[in-house]
Task: structure prediction
Amino acid sequence: MAGKIKIGILGATGYTGVELVKILKHHPQVSIAFVSSQSYADQRLSDVFPELKMICDDVLLAPEKTLEQSPDCVFSCLPHATSAALLMPFIKKGIKVIDLSADFRIKDPDTYEKWYKVPHPCPDLLEKAVFGLCEHNRAEIAKATIIANPGCYSSSIMLPLLPLFKDKATTLSLIIADSKSGVSGAGRSLKLTSHFVEVHEDFKAYSIGHSHRHIPEIEQEFSKAAGKPVAITFSPHLIPTNRGILSTIYITTNRTAAECLDIVKKAYAGEPFVRVRQPEDLPSIRGVAHTNFCDMTFTGGTDDRPIIAVCTIDNLVKGASGQAVQNMNIMFGFTETAALL
Amino acid sequence: MAGKIKIGILGATGYTGVELVKILKHHPQVSIAFVSSQSYADQRLSDVFPELKMICDDVLLAPEKTLEQSPDCVFSCLPHATSAALLMPFIKKGIKVIDLSADFRIKDPDTYEKWYKVPHPCPDLLEKAVFGLCEHNRAEIAKATIIANPGCYSSSIMLPLLPLFKDKATTLSLIIADSKSGVSGAGRSLKLTSHFVEVHEDFKAYSIGHSHRHIPEIEQEFSKAAGKPVAITFSPHLIPTNRGILSTIYITTNRTAAECLDIVKKAYAGEPFVRVRQPEDLPSIRGVAHTNFCDMTFTGGTDDRPIIAVCTIDNLVKGASGQAVQNMNIMFGFTETAALL
Amino acid sequence: MAGKIKIGILGATGYTGVELVKILKHHPQVSIAFVSSQSYADQRLSDVFPELKMICDDVLLAPEKTLEQSPDCVFSCLPHATSAALLMPFIKKGIKVIDLSADFRIKDPDTYEKWYKVPHPCPDLLEKAVFGLCEHNRAEIAKATIIANPGCYSSSIMLPLLPLFKDKATTLSLIIADSKSGVSGAGRSLKLTSHFVEVHEDFKAYSIGHSHRHIPEIEQEFSKAAGKPVAITFSPHLIPTNRGILSTIYITTNRTAAECLDIVKKAYAGEPFVRVRQPEDLPSIRGVAHTNFCDMTFTGGTDDRPIIAVCTIDNLVKGASGQAVQNMNIMFGFTETAALL
Amino acid sequence: MAGKIKIGILGATGYTGVELVKILKHHPQVSIAFVSSQSYADQRLSDVFPELKMICDDVLLAPEKTLEQSPDCVFSCLPHATSAALLMPFIKKGIKVIDLSADFRIKDPDTYEKWYKVPHPCPDLLEKAVFGLCEHNRAEIAKATIIANPGCYSSSIMLPLLPLFKDKATTLSLIIADSKSGVSGAGRSLKLTSHFVEVHEDFKAYSIGHSHRHIPEIEQEFSKAAGKPVAITFSPHLIPTNRGILSTIYITTNRTAAECLDIVKKAYAGEPFVRVRQPEDLPSIRGVAHTNFCDMTFTGGTDDRPIIAVCTIDNLVKGASGQAVQNMNIMFGFTETAALL
Result:
């Protein structure tokens, strides 16, 4: 069909890749030029995911074969380091890229190396990359050629707090994010911690105590908004569900919960994917599953106790592939909600 | 069998009641004199719970019929207010009682009425009741005639923090308990929030913002140990599992995580049901499910961030019926681990 | 918008009602004129289902208020007997109706009364009703004014076997359908058998031994296709999932599994929602969840053993609301896959 | 402790191995001499399964080190072929062995090789092995030195049907077993089909069409009881639960369901672990989970339709480690229910 842009997907056989295919198949202005996979090269995507039969029966290209392609936009669902390396040829050809890995999120290559244990593959490109949190960086996204799609946990923590950081009259000291994620966030690779019997009827914390890799991007964006260094405490937990993130965030602030609620309501008025809820109507994962919505509210604060924000997203949609498509919609001037509502 | 004590169970058809029956059936020094139920009176317990066939086929007595009974010990698994009212006749006969409801936990009847919205049924008995957190009140429990079995969430929050409160050289300011519980904690009565389809693949917070009824007993016991008023922030969440509680607790203290770990290790040395773990070996619900164990560790504190305690119990065992049997074992001079290991 | 048809939904607050709203909201040629509910009248649908906020904030009409409405098509998600009674006024006004209850499925009012224990509310309308199994009754559906949307289990059993019944050279004797369904099939009303703790980590059979109400409609349609009475054995089971039906069907036939596969492949060639799979690629519930697809295959037959068909659908989509919309698309001459792919 | 027998466990770090440890730790006449593991040699069992801390902190021996041991009884939880090979040295020393693998179940080495794709490691020992279905082979088990512990699916299919085969006046023709198992039956090794996200909210059939390896042992035992070759159709399915098997079995017989029920009631009168239930009280997995019980009933047969048996067991207990301990109890003259009730 004339007028459609052509897109490519690197690493299409992980959970975010498949979610991206499903979303883009509903997009009226997009056609999929290629899907790639190292492990499943030359098989059909629908052989790997039979649920996609008659939806996307494209043959998966080996990564090196994608270099012959010149689509209008490339999404990468590859792991960090590999992602930037395989995106570089497209970037050099002037093709717009949206990277779902962490590679373009951290502006400082030393910080990247400290947290990711590898030197950054292309530090010189970091400046060009735009942090793709759509509700906050829409103008830059519209002009961007490299989008760093935010981490799933990060989105659920930044969306409720960024409006407070941006409000000059609001102070924020302690920030503790107690986050809970479904298992798809851990990816499709095989590990004992994703074995059904080990996860089902279990619940556990992991990577707590200042060790999870989403911390630097959150602290970077908060510090940028605050105009000074911001430190957070972040504790991820594994829920025995397929999807969804709920973050319970404790903050010390000069604002009441009602005032926080007002600030975010104003900040997100007219936003198609943010739903600010009343405290008596707490967000749940069920309420956002399989959608690009972010639900949030503020409560707490009794007798000087901390204020509590609760925020939910679907980790695979607003926390990954949905937000990636929202970024694409902004970059290409499409209706921002296309294929997402 | 000679030498066995006879026990009665009021409200045997809820989840804690059934768990109690299962545990006591393994106890060599106990025989069950009666099980009662309002809703299922005159049916066999094993008709209501077929899993108990050939294990406990006793006929359920209507509550009023239990008054003719004179067992050595009565457990109540009834809801608050009803529980104290139905236990009173036994208490007056000098029979030892273990109340799994909240009725004897709060020392101040006004506080009870504020949180439970009913006047206390027998405020004069409150002084005699002992708060049955076994590891901390063993001596009083041994002499007690009324045991207030602690709340499930409360146990998971008090066990890691009480040793710190009791340590004179430790200061504790901010206390935030972000707790997660399986659905059996909400009981067996019918409500939309326990409907399978509403809970499965969901995760949500509830009663957050200083409203959950376990708060006053936790603040009471912490204040007693600290010798001054202690305020906590407590946020419960619902996990799509049948059992288990995991509490992630954030504290501000003059201690490092390693020092906290040392303090609790010393406090619980020799305890048969508390397992203090290393931070790299985080407690999980799976690790304590169907047992009377409480697993805990301490971590965090990087660059002045809060210290994080993680604690897990099975809400129906250490959080309810297991601890109730542990209390009975102490009261009657049995081996403390009988029927529990 | 000009050109859109207006539809009404009776009983919009059950699981099939909500699914219908979600599907129709994606339909380019449909606008929702009203949603109704007895229990939640005058509340917004999105107050009952917060996931629908900003998607469908319509106020729910009390059933009696819907009578003032004259939409182009009415869907009923009400329980049997109530459904036909509330649809009758619309039918009399000449409005097309699609009934998701069983009321118009059974042609013989005596059979209806025998299985549903109430006299049929409008036996004279039964002749006009078309059994809305789209792939088999497309021509009649196109001309129909009353559609009896098939039962969820029924669809999963009829779709694989009807092509065999219609093939003159194929004989079929024994038919055993061992079916398994997610819990949403039992509805949203409160019962102990849908309580999370009673269902999670459980699996059970129910209504087995010729007692489930989907039996008469299956035997009716099979007998019609076979031209003689057909009897089936049908055993439903409850899976601890939200959605999906998998039917394992054992048949004795003069055909091999490969021949059965050929027959259904031919029968469903070009069908947009039926995917016939190879036996080594068995259908799963995951493969059809949240879609209108029906996946099936045939295997077995070694050494004269029975042939085995395996068929999966999403009980709320192809087994209910998706098929209802597919029926609407056929009735109104829309693209059959509109809002469904 | 004097009088205790010493036992060894080969392959203690799989799900059946751990279950065995948990059961035996409650056995008053047993002490664990060693636990072994190839992959985790020299680590503590409780490092691999933290839930076992303070319960079994034994160090895991490498398999070759177990040869220096001379316990009274060895259990093997190893995979087939490896199991017989590592048990042989113990058998030669005259030590009693209980093999939870398939190695000693099939009497005919050619049949073994056909289904298991390896030559049998010690065909000469097959004659000495006793098929350890306790309720049916108690006398032989008491004298046995090699026990072939039955397969999990097999137990759930043989227990309801064997009494019918043994009844001279009962005829049985068609036998179809539609079985459903929790994921622990697939073991703890890593495979995509046991990945949480692939299993949760899914349900599927696998190895259907005369291909599952439990078929030959079932047909062998049925043929032996019937005195003539018996063929079965067996379809296993995967339930998204950790534990449990439910088999729905369709049979053609000259008996009514009520007569079948009578026959099994008589056959199992006095059996401590078999509970024959009324058809209106269908067995469920929940009813037998974490126990050594086998629940069953018979129903169906309306208008010449097949009779339906429903049978449930816990795959890790009565279907594996519980039955293994029951076998040990019989072999050593202990109370048959020791550690199992």
User: Anything to note?
Assistant: Chain C has a mean pLDDT of 97. The first strand of chain C starts at residue 5 and ends at 10.
